[in-house]
């Protein structure tokens, strides 16, 4: 995903690393190269401005110290600041102290939510948890079935709003919580979480509906589900391929559902990806996972320091 950004920055640093002394004009020309590389990679303009401002300030004030020559010191500053832009520390899942940990997924249609639900469930299952998926995306006719397929691949159960217990899947009707419509995603989400409690699953991952664009009805529904199930995490899944639109979408979801963490999906693609990298900085919310393919194993915990090294090495 970040090949071209990485090549540009590495090229800039190659000249710098060997330098014994750095003049202000060396620093200025380095900052200019970095700015252009970030802009070309689609990094959001305010993020580029803040980033280059901080690098410049620190580079000009840097004392020559220890084992690093001035060029290497600038490279280190860029690395440190990139880690900050990407969210600083690795942020782990916030697990509930009692009862199941409830994780709600939100994002636009096609962003990769359903696929990610399976990946996360599998990752947690491999860590010794007992996750269950809940199909509260009732917008698309096929979404419930798709989540069931994903659950099968991940080897975890799926609570779906079906009458009876078809296909070996648990039906949310079993909780018997009232007689509200099967078409009500808030009820389905609540009933699914209720059933997970009864059956002692320790993680519930609730898939919700997306639309092709942000709209009020989508946000209202997501907010209603969130308020009903009181999740420990609301993860916002964003397709890294959508370019600059990622920023606007992330801000809309941040305002709409106040998500707690970001999932960057489709990082295996060949888009420039800088907009997705800006999401943590623009929203102030940490990136927690990256999704790097269509298979259930294609998930990584997001480590800002490792991502920075991957981009700069
Ligand atoms: P949803 O509408 O948000 O639930 O999105 P889906 O999970 O259905 O994903 C939409 C499409 O993107 C599907 O064709 C997925 O196979 C594909 N997809 C999801 N995640 C990834 C990923 O990390 N990499 C790639 N290459 N494709 C993905």
Automatic annotation (TrEMBL):
Its EC number is 3.6.5.4. Coiled coil: none annotated. It is found in: Cytoplasm. GO terms for biological process: SRP-dependent cotranslational protein targeting to membrane. One of its GO terms (molecular function) is GTPase activity. The keyword Membrane does not apply. Residues 1-86 form the Signal recognition particle SRP54 helical bundle domain. It catalyses: GTP + H2O = GDP + phosphate + H(+). Keywords: Cytoplasm, GTP-binding, Hydrolase, Nucleotide-binding, Ribonucleoprotein, RNA-binding, Signal recognition particle. Residues 99-313 form the AAA+ ATPase domain. GTP binds at residues 107-114, 207-211, 265-268. Residues 100-313 form the SRP54-type proteins GTP-binding domain. The keyword tRNA-binding does not apply. One of its GO terms (cellular component) is signal recognition particle. Part of the signal recognition particle protein translocation system, which is composed of SRP and FtsY. Composed of three domains: the N-terminal N domain, which is responsible for interactions with the ribosome, the central G domain, which binds GTP, and the C-terminal M domain, which binds the RNA and the signal sequence of the RNC. Belongs to the GTP-binding SRP family. SRP54 subfamily. Involved in targeting and insertion of nascent membrane proteins into the cytoplasmic membrane. Binds to the hydrophobic signal sequence of the ribosome-nascent chain (RNC) as it emerges from the ribosomes. The SRP-RNC complex is then targeted to the cytoplasmic membrane where it interacts with the SRP receptor FtsY. This is Signal recognition particle protein. It comes from Metallococcus carri.
């Amino acid at each position: 995903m970040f090949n071209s950004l990485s090549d540009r920055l590495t090229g800039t640093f190659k000249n710098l690393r060997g330098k014994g002394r750095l003049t202000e004009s060396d620093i200025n020309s380095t900052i200019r190269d970095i700015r252009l590389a970030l802009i070309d990679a689609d990094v959001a303009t305010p993020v580029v401005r803040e980033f280059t401002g901080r690098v410049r300030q620190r580079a000009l004030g840097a004392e020559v110290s220890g084992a690093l020559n001035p060029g290497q010191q600038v490279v280190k500053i860029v690395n440190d600041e990139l880690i900050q832009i990407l969210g600083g520390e690795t942020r782990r899942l916030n697990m509930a102290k009692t009862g199941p940990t409830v994780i709600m997924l939100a994002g636009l249609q096609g962003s990769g939510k359903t696929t990610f639900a399976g990946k996360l469930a599998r990752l947690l299952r491999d860590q010794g948890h007992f996750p269950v998926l809940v199909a509260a995306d009732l917008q698309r006719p096929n979404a419930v079935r798709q989540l069931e397929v994903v659950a099968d691949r991940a080897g975890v159960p799926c609570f779906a709003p079906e009458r009876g217990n078809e296909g070996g899947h648990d039906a949310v009707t079993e909780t018997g919580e009232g007689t509200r419509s099967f078409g009500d995603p808030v009820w389905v989400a609540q009933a699914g979480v209720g059933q997970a409690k009864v059956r002692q699953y320790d993680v519930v991952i609730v898939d919700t509906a997306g639309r092709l664009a942000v709209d009020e009805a989508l946000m209202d529904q997501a907010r209603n589900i969130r308020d009903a199930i009181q999740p420990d995490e609301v993860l916002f899944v964003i397709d890294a391929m959508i370019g600059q639109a990622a920023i606007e979408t992330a801000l809309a979801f941040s305002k709409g559902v106040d998500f707690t963490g970001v999932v960057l999906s489709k990082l295996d693609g060949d888009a420039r990806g800088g907009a997705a990298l800006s999401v943590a900085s623009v929203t102030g919310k940490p990136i927690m996972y990256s999704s790097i393919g269509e298979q259930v194993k294609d998930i990584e915990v997001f480590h800002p320091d490792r991502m920075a090294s991957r981009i700069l090495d």
